[in-house]
Amino acid sequence: MVLRLGTLNVGSLTGRSMEIVEMLERKRIDICCLQETRWKSNGVCHVNSDKEKYKLFWNGQKTAENGVGIFVREPLAKEVLDIKRINSRFMWIKLRLEKQTMIIFSAYALQTGESEEMKNDFWAAFSDTISTIPKSETILIGGDLNGHVGDKTDDFDNVHGGFGYGERNENGNRILEFAESHGFCLLKTGTSHNIQKWTISHAN
Fold first, then answer.
1. Whether the predicted pLDDT of 197 surpasses 80
2. What angle do CA 70, 144, 106 make, to 5 degrees?
3. What is the mean predicted confidence (pLDDT) over 35-53?
4. CA 120, CA 117: separation in Å to the nearest integer?
5. Pfam families, from UniProt (predicted)?
6. Is 16 a member of any domain?
7. In total, how many domains does the chain have?
8. Is the peptide bond before 134 cis (omega within 30 degrees of 0)?
9. Stretch 127-144: mean pLDDT
10. Which range of residues forms the domain containing residue 71?
11. What does the pLDDT look like over 105-123, one tens digit per residue?
12. Could you write out the DSSP letters of every residue in the chain?
């Protein structure tokens, strides 16, 4: 089975859920990780277009800030085995895909202007969560990680495919160090196509 995974920083999901589902339908996306939903609390709901049905899992906080979510197309949504809502910046779902168990994260890292302490707390919590997942399970991360990994691999040849863009910044270093420490690779740095470079995956 071919799984089409996407990710999208929506700015705000309020009043846009149908618009986004129609876009997912056009692009034939099976699962889409959302960031900056700005929805409070957490929950599950169904959003249907004329042709497709999607199930949305989301997690927020008491105020309408941050927030993450994951759209899953039916009938694939029936294969979701578990949901883990860690905080308003990352969550995961576990699903069965044929004979494989897969963990899909939606993650929203802190922006460049935030304090180093807050950034460290985010990446430490993310790393701790990854460490609890058995090595036998495939991990995919779709997210807005708010960093530029640049177009050079430097000392990260094992995780960076050499087709990034621009200059690497400090947040990009954090992303690469995180990927290296957990055996991930940045999928979209492995192609020269002019497309968004956003997803990281377990290297196994």
1. no
2. 25
3. 95
4. 5
5. Exo_endo_phos
6. yes
7. 1
8. no
9. 94
10. 5-146
11. 999 999 888 999 999 999 9
12. ----EEEEE-S--TTTHHHHHHHHHHHT-SEEEEE-----SEEEEEEE-SS-EEEEEEE--SSSS--EEEEEETTGGGGEEEEEEEETTEEEEEEEETTEEEEEEEEEPPPTTS-HHHHHHHHHHHHHHHHTS-TTSEEEEEEE------S--TT-TTT--S---S---HHHHHHHHHHHHHTEEEGGGG--SSS---EEEE--
Rounded Cα distance, 177 and 119, in Å? 14
Which residue in the block uniquely carries the two structure tokens 């530029």? 148
Tokens representing 147 are 């960093």
Residue that the structure tokens 């058995």 belong to: 134
In a domain, 201, yes or no: no
CA distance 58 to 69: 4
* Closest to 68 (Cα-Cα) out of 116, 113, 129, 120: 129
Question: What would the mean pLDDT of 29-53 be, rounded to a whole number?
Answer: 96
The domain that contains 51 carries what CATH number?
3.60.10.10
The pLDDT score that the predictor gives to residue 170 is 87
Average pLDDT, the chain: 87
48 in a structural domain: yes
Is 191 a member of any domain? no
Q: Are strands 5-9 and 31-35 parallel, antiparallel or unpaired?
A: parallel
CB 69 within 8 A of CB 34: yes
CA angle 141, 16, 91 (to 5 degrees): 25
What does the alpha-carbon distance between residue 51 and residue 79 come to, in Å, rounded to a whole number?
20
Provide the sign of the torsion angle of the four alpha carbons 93, 70, 140, 121, taken in this order.
negative
